[in-house]
Queue: 2 jobs
Job 1
Amino acid sequence: MIKKNFHEKIALVLSFLILNNYLLLSLNSPQLMIKINFLIFLLTVLIFYSKNFLENSFLKIFFLFIIFISLGTPTFEWDARSIWLFHAKRIFYDQSIFSIGDNYAAFSHNEYSSLAPAFASSLAFLVGHWNEVFPKLSFSLMFLPPLILTYAFLKDTQYLIFLSIVFFTIGKFLFNGWTDGLVAIYFGLSAFLMYLLFFIDTNFFKNRLLFYLLAFCFFISLTLIKNEGIALLFILFATTFIIKLYKGQLGKDISKLVFLSISFLPVIFWKFFCYSKGIGDYYINTNILLNLLPRLDDLNNYKLISYFLFLNEKFLIALIFFLLSFWIKLDKELFSFIFIVTAMYIFILFFIYLSTPYDFYFQLDSTAARVIRSLSFLLAFFGLYNLRNYKISY
Amino acid sequence: MVEVKIKKFKFFFIILCVIQLFYIFHFRSGFKYEIIKNPFNENAGISYALSAEVIEANSILKKHKVIDFNLSEGLKKDTYLYQRTIEFNYPIRINESSKLIFFLYAEDIPNTCKVIETGKYLKLTQC
């Protein structure tokens, strides 16, 4: 028999250790401490696997297969090689996440935050050398905290459907060394934790420190995985703020929101460091209005963005599933929360694409299918969660 | 009766997950059996991840134990070769003022440069 809150606690420990690894590398800690931290992570995974193997056996078996695929594939795609694993390689050889301060190889977007690369470099510390295959295994391991946490809420067949959603929406991003899959799943679970802490009727979650700590770790991770995560977490806070303000409950919850907003601090420090070293984001550094204004009044631009974002087959299927789920069982509060989050993100995506300094078509063609992944996962996940207690009549 | 239908429902999703994983593995991963045999080997997967020119540049640099290098204009114009050479050779760095310059095999080498090593695809010179 597994102890109460076992999955929540394992998810918390794992996500804390991922963040602690980042902190250790930020503080130029001795390599021994970084190795011990990673070993504790692996030990925790082992405890998760060994404690009643039959409990959550599907995740355990399927994840072993993901590890197998990850260890059998080279890192050959551009983002994985030239951004994420190159950052990891630099951290491995220079033993600090701040080594990018020299802005060497500027094409690799040195301003991107390095939570996943830092974790990959620590695995290389443990192994003792670098190569083109195993470091990206760390990216796969970072999926474990959200995947394990979900089991606390969706059991048995529901969890199988959840895994099916993960394989469908995230797919090869589970092991290919990109961070888009991590953003999608951490965003989905961050939205879920926000919902549990601020919207759900019961006080069960609102009164427990464990869930605040989980939210804190997941929120920090989301912002430090990729720039997109900062915008997504901001959307979650803004949506919560707006709904609470509308319902006149802001006074009651504002202190919790302020406490959780501390999770933006690490990424603010990182951005400040980059700014102080003159390492800028090409998008922000260019004149946004100069790119945006000429594109605003051309209807074809909106059509093209809509084509790339909304005619994505994964997004469409997830959206249909979400709408169907809420048509079967309407939870107004949950629906409005997800609807506002989705609408805000789509608005931001339109704004970003219309103001891109890069070639408009190239930017859409190379990124739209990846950024919409976060919404596809969010919609499908909440569609499933909404039906968790629904009884099918045979 | 209900029990049987629930079991069928569960079985359906087990099969669905297995099919999805197989699809990702077989069609989307680039999985290589040669790599899984020894994924922690220092040279694992390089021939699948990089072009022969980039691998050759690395072996020449290691052989001569250099700490920095530069690339010819011809190599710099090729974005793929430029970026992959930089990232794969790290911690050996590209340095604009380095006297050791790589040229493509077919490129003309200036008179001021002396060829140190000629490979199959590249030439390392001292200028």
Job 2
Amino acid sequence: MDAIQYYKDLLIATQRELIRYRFWAALVSTCVFVVMLAASLYWPERYQSTATISMDVTNVIEPLLRGKAEVVNDDARDRVADTILTRRVLKRAIENYAKKHNIEYSPADIEQKIIEYRASIKVETVNSTSALTNIYFSSSDPNIAFDSLDAVVNAFLENKVNEKQRDSLAAFSFIDDQVKKYKDQLMQADKNLQAFKADSVDVTEEVVRTRIGDLSAQIKDLKIAMEESQETLKATQKQLSNEQKYLNVRTKLLALEDRKVIMVEELDRLRLSYQDSYPDVVTLKNQLSEVNKDIEEYVELMGGGSGNTSELPLYEELRKQYAAAELLWSTQKRRLIAIEKLLEEERALADEVTKNQTELADLTRDYDVNKGLYEEMLGRKENAKLTMALNNEGQGENYRLLQPPMFPIKPSSLNPLLILLVAPVLSLLVPIGLVFMFVMLDPRMRSLQQLKKALPTEIILLGVIPHQSTPLNIRLLRKDALILVAWLAIILASYGYAILLLGF
Amino acid sequence: MDKTPISNFAVLNDKQPVAIAKMAEVRLYTDDELINLKLLRPSTESPSIKAFRDLRTKLLARANGKNFICMVVPIASGGGSHVAANLAAAIALDKTKTSLLIDCNLHTPSVDRLLPGGSEIGLTDYLDDQRISCEDIVYGSGVKRMRAVPVGNNCDGGTEKLSSERMARLLQELKGRYLDRYIIVDAPPAMDYEADVSLLSDICDFIVLVVPYGKVNETQLNAEIQKIGIDRLAGIVFNEC
């Protein structure tokens, strides 16, 4: 209900504003009318020639060769427009047209014509499932429209045949080149693999690992033996050291005993000449006593054994043992170095074997990949050969001129009469519409509903004063109405004249 | 044409209220003249007369039967004087009441056209000259029991004149002289002459705000309501003229 009232108020307001701005409305109306009148009189006539091309993509061979030969059909319908509007086709069409009409076009003219053709041609697929494509050519001259479309359609079909064969050949050549390239690559891979196998050491990783294990075990054993030798050396050296001390005491004892013999001999000699109280005898006795004392000490040190007991055989034996142990240690040490060197060599060999195996895997993979690609390319080459053969025999995608260009008898553009007929209606509707829009968008209040909505609740609406006309207003309105009627009469006269001009 | 103020021959010689029947009248407008002036015709029943009668009734109810000074203020120019004049005419339709329309719209005066006898001096002359009495500026209109005070001849400095003490005293004197006289003040547009409206609103009993057709939006309306104040605002009149 509110909505109805709202639109009712809008219409009343529109009416009031139209009366208020009657001259402006009349002016707008006249402008619209004049523009449409002029448009109807000077509306350019366009003639449109139409041709239909059918795209035949079905053939008897295709089902048999599905998956084997590629029939070019990648949404070809969409490409009709693209192909027709290409510079190549349009230039060819313009040249054909010029040849037919004995016209000489300069390069600049051809460029201009290409632009004009692009603007004049319209390509339309009948529907998404249909294979039919309509081609339209519009021109102000029906002859030009017809001849130009004929030239364009012929150029398109001619281009399509050439293009198809060219495409097939190009595809075949490309694949053939690829096949050769992959064949070379495959051969190279095979050669590399063979060369590698010939050059690489014929040792397996397992053998090297066993050898390393053996050598490591030997080193371990040798180290234990070396430890034992070391212990033997230490023990022998210790015994030798003890034997050395004994030898020293013994040597000193022997020296003292020799000295004692000399001194006894000297004493005996002196006693022969002198009394015991002779000082030299006394001194010698004392010295002898000292020597004896020392001898006793050394004897004690030697364990009370007789000074004449020789210990040399034990010492010699110990020396022999020590020399033998030292020799063994030295031998073991050299052997350890030799085995460690061997182990290093084996480890290096193991690395080399691993590296070789990786390289071998790479080469094998390379070979396999190249082989796969080569085989695939061979398959494609066969497909391309078939496709080329199909295209050469007219199979695959074909374009047929289903409906040749038709000569346009009637202009296809909007009928000027229609514009003329619409002119009075539109010239009346435009000012009304403008005022309606103005009233609708203008926030100023033009109805009681708007005012009630805007009023705060505590404010009372005392009343609505209705519109009241005075005789003066009415007279003025009448005068204006007369002016507008005269205005309308002029417009109607123009309208009648325009109809006459259009030949009705 | 007799341009003598009605007060010269009305019974205004003393300060006591006098009977309406004894008040003299000037020539009354004919129906045609009333139509031309867009004034109410008592002889016909029209939507306009009904609307103004309703308006009159509501204002009288607000005043509890006592006489009042009511200022009619249009928010924007367009129909304020029409509402004021017709409200005065509607009050005068009642034989027991008289109305006095004071033209305070110094910028676009309109009351002169309602005086069949014309006028020589008016409100501004009275405010300028102490020798002029209020009786000298009250004229009989062409509507029975309706008087009018025109703007006068000296509208310069109008805002200052309206703010004078003499103006306030004039209104009180006019109101107090006749208990059955209802005073309608025709004010200038509120959006254009804010100062004038503000000054006049202080010396009036209440205000009627006129919303002219297609000239005021919601924001402007609310702004004017805020300025006037809800207490002094009797209500809103939507003028479709």
